[in-house]
Amino acid sequence: MRQLSYLLIVAFGFIGRVVAATEYRAQPGPFEIGKIEQVWHDPARNRDVPVRIYYPKTEAGNELTSFPVIVFSHGLGGSRESYSYLGEHWASCGYVSVHVQHHGSDKDVMRGLRPLKALREAATIPANAINRPVDITFAIDRLTALNSDTAFPLHGQLDLLRLGVAGHSFGAFTTMAVAGAHLPVLGDNGSSRDPRVKAAIAMSTPTTQNNDAAFDDITIPVFHMTGTKDEAPGRRSGSEVDLIVGNTKASERLRPYLHTQRAPTYLLVFEGGDHMVFSGRLAGSRATDQPFQDLILASSTAFWDAWLKDAADARGWLESGGFATTLGRLGTFDQKRPATDLK
């Protein structure tokens, strides 16, 4: 058994009453971790969707245990192997974390002689943006089918009524699309909302619509994460070429939080945090990388526990000052709820 990732404390003020709150830390949760890699084929689009699944191992004879599911979308140039620190941690805390690889905007794009140019070009292709949320919906469909398949190693262990979606950068674009944001590149309707998703985490969301109407169909809780230096890598000032995910200023990443009015919404902004804090760097590291990632692990797990496991203590830690105290001077944490939720 692994070390428990939290300690019980008492906190005050959560929705006007005393609750037992949970102090979340970055240490792994109680479950050992298993991994599965598969390639799923979507015949409707003749498209392969590779996945890596991180899951909590259960004790022998306890196969009927089911776990909430998180579907994760990588950033531009990523893969199913990316963001393993998130998948491993969430699985250790009792979640099945399914990391989807999006062909056309994944690591394979960088195999040519000019990888950075190829990445920028991939970010301008509408088909890549359109396929990404469809990949997520297809993955959910596939998980639903496999959960009833006795040959699948996690047969019966997926609680798909408690389903979250998360992503970074282009993956945050994907997450917001699945959550219900209206994005013009997605076509006339501009939406790829999947009503089966119950909560979402969006890290470094690219420039999106700058009005409330674009986010009116988001009614699920969303946790936004960014940093004061979260500029798009290689951003070109004044460029209009990269219309889907590029040229995003740090200040523009606040738009989804500011314009979401119909759902519980959270915003974490790391002081000095840049774009690569969330994904990890190809070479080297910065002194704040590990503290920031520790806070990402702690706060994201509390968010999932609050909204996918209905844990009042986790929500209390997030909303009543526990997380803000832990965050300290490393950043700011804001939250808002629609008027109908203020009861």
Ordered list of secondary-structure elements with their pairings:
Elements: E1 6-14, E2 17-24, E3 33-42, E4 47-56, E5 67-73, H1 84-92, E6 96-100, H2 115-122, H3 126-146, E7 158-168, H4 170-179, E8 199-203, E9 222-229, H5 255-259, E10 265-274, H6 289-308, H7 312-319, H8 322-327, E11 331-336
Parallel strand pairs: 5-6, 5-7, 7-8, 8-9, 9-10
Antiparallel strand pairs: 1-2, 3-4, 4-6, 10-11
List the quaternary state of the chains: single chain
Instruction: Please write the string of helix (H) and strand (E) elements.
Output: EEEEEHEHHEHEEHEHHHE
Structural class: alpha/beta
How far apart lie the N and C ends? 39 Å
Main sheet specs = 9 strands, mixed
- Specify the overall morphology: globular
Percent of residues in beta strands:
25-35%
Q: How many distinct folded domains? A: 1
Rg on CA atoms, Å:
19 Å
Average pLDDT over all residues: 88
**Which blocks of ≥5 consecutive residues have pLDDT under 50?**
1-20
- The first-level CATH class is given as Alpha Beta
Residues in helices, as a percent range: 25-40%
The number of helical segments is: 8
List keywords for this structure.
343 residues; alpha/beta; Rossmann fold; nine-stranded mixed sheet; two-stranded antiparallel sheet; 25% helix
